[in-house]
Protein 1
Amino acid sequence: MAVVSPIVSTVETIYTNIIATIASIWNENPNWNGTGIDINAA
């Protein structure tokens, strides 16, 4: 587990950064997914 832990930590960091980036794009372009639904309206 000593070897796996840093890898998991790194993956979690990358994953969090990706989610944050997508969320940022989504907030600036609420219709970018093509549904025409503003996710900020809920």
Protein 2
Amino acid sequence: MKKNKLGELINNNKSIIVPGGGTALELRLAELAGFEAGYVSGYATAAAAYGVPDVGLIALNEIETNVSAIRGATSFPLIVDCDTGYGDIPNVMRTVQKLETLGVSAIQLEDQKWPKKCGHMDGKIIEPIEVAVEKIKAAVHTRRTNEFKIIARTDARSPHGFKEAIKRLEAYHEAGADILFMDAIESEDEMKSQISELPGVHMVNMSETGKTPLMPAKKLEDIGYQVILFPSSMIRILTKQLSMFLSDLRELGDSSSWLDKMASLEETNHALGLDEINRTVNKIRS
């Protein structure tokens, strides 16, 4: 799959499951597992790449550095969480320019005030709808090609209610957003209402133990979602499993009980692309 063909995937009248990660290894493994696209999660980037919570601590240059590494290790379409666009209209324009140059397929912009928080945290502050609409218009105006998709996310559901969130997504759609995303939507009935009330392509995320009920992708597809994110599953599994391993290692001083739970050296090197590197080197030397 070519890097910029997200539009083809979402126009095929079927949903796509998109796992999220914050490192090149996570997204590379997702591609090797056969997923058609990957999501560079702001939450997972903050956690896995920088070891901090998702409370507005990550800046554009840090996202740019991380996405560059991920892009270099993968070839499938990437959706990148760009938080609020890192500022006002000029900042959003620069964000679009930087990310489109890196070869990603879409960016996600949200309507929180900076410093933002993870969408499933309490205490979010939402910026005026006029400001958010201007940012979407700026992103659409700045992109070089329509193949670069703009995802508009509203965080208004939790602090202001479902009707306000719908109102905002409608405005963002009219401003030119390609994909609509209501974060922290709270019920299946709300999901069905969102799809029936708003035209366009819709995205949903399954943030385990968050505010949105966890559902299988097939059910979400039947409701009408075309892009189904699992944005932070990998970093959560990593956090728990590594913590368990380190606890055992600290207590026992022995890793042998974990051998069946870890990749071998050969398996790890294969996942990292060493086989391909060796084949190329041998071809050059032959």
Protein 3
Amino acid sequence: EGDFADELPPGSIGEIVVSGSSLAVGYWRDEALTRARFRNGWWRSGDMGYIDADGDLFILGRTDNVINTGGMKVHGEEIERVLLGHPAVAQAAVVGVPDQRWGQRVEAHVILRSSGAADAAVLEAFCRAHGELASFKVPKVFHLVDRLPTGPTGKLYRRALRGSA
């Protein structure tokens, strides 16, 4: 956390930080954000990822979409990739919502394909049977929806999903 550029071993997930001669020195007229994101020639991207043994970078998602459930860290995008592997799922978005017991509860918002037949129980069983997801990562609630909220640029508006629970 000192200069936030500690190198992690291959396969370890962390925030992606960038340094280089053409890197900006800060944000225009935003000193607070500059102090939070820039230090000692490094920029915190806000993206989470890892570098594999071959040196290839994989981006997993945003730091602001890390869900803390029962003290365990969950990357919503990881669960979304699993859900998208189900033949009935067209789109998926996973968020953490406040929960008295767990701190945050993992919830999935899913759009089914027009030909898709699945319900919450089927999707939960699919997630549990998938070898990549530990049990604490399996969503506690599945919302089957017709659309996911997006902003003016078409980007998923996760905040709206957190508020709809």
Protein 4
Amino acid sequence: MKDKISIIIPTRNEERTIGTIIKQTSKYSSDIIVVDGHSKDSTRDIAQSLKARVILDNSKGKGAALRIAVQNTTREIVLFMDADGSHETSDIPRLIKPILEDKADLVVASRMLGGSDVQ
């Protein structure tokens, strides 16, 4: 599984949480991409020290940052995760399972719905 998934984490001044998120997601992927919105804190340094790939965004917003990151992936599966810890990294296997089993091409999750089922 680790060699099939890229995890993209957009950031801006996330030094308090980025280390934990990278450590947690690295259980599921060896390709963690941090696309940074020109942070003024140590977000980039922390990400690089944990062997994440760090790409600077183009200052055109989160959507543009995600597109830049996708252009830098080579894996079969791309997963987007926020850096603030609002997503449970333990849900990653459940989210990608339908894709790995050829039951889905796309899986969308929402932290707002809580307890949703993968269908």
